[in-house]
Write the structure tokens for this entry.
Amino acid sequence: MSDKKIVESKLKYDAVVRDEILEHKSITDGFSVTLDLVMVEYEAFKNYFRSDYYHIVFIESGEATININLTDYHVKKNDFLLSSPFDIKRLIKFKDCKISTILFTSDFLEKTDLLKSTNDLLAYFTSKYSPKWSLNQNDSVTIIKSMKELAEKQENIKTHLYGKELLYLAFTSYLYEMSALAQKYAQAIHKNISRKENLVISFTALIIANFKKERALQFYASELNITAKYLTETIKEITGKTAGEIVESFVIQEAKMLLNNPELSIAEIAEELNFSDQSFFGKFFKRCTGLSPKNYRLL
């Protein structure tokens, strides 16, 4: 399959900045902050997409509905939304919405040496936590003040002798501020994690890394050093779903995102998801969704 077509399902940081999709200015490669942005129709966000950047959005006024990993989140004033490069995203609708937003890439974290020290701080971008936080007024003031400080450091990066260093420090401080607020607002999807619950999390992480190539439960059981029977029983006990259903849900989620890209043929999508042929993919998709891939595209 053409790599170009698959890449087009991923919105790249450089394209957002270069094409000014969000009116972002990027003085530092891989990092950008924009304040008081009035939302308009963004063609790039109408269909499901992934990105190569982390995205932080603070809602200053108005409201919007944003889909993250096929779940709709309705956000309003003082709500805070986080998304990672791994998340599937789509802007559903908005009304009189003004936001402040930060984009940053893993490359930015790595080259500034922040990646080593911010792993715990970035935990709130993972699927373990809800991406939506609803802040009170005092905490909203705190977070917007920190964003304004970041914007100032970004503006001064070329004129101050230690501009980059000050930006890096300000951003690290911002992540710590977020981490502190997370203790109040981040809703954990998995609470009081037991050994069995931890197995579910490890299983999910393995699926994320391998679902395009591996759908057999024996593969995941072997990777986790347990039997397929124990994996199946534990997943069912904790989640109420079978292990197979969870694997299939990731495949279907990916398939839906790819089907929203009109430039990809169904045969190409079948190949990308490692199905033997288009017919097998079609039967799998219809069994899971009740619709053929072709009919899903007509919705």
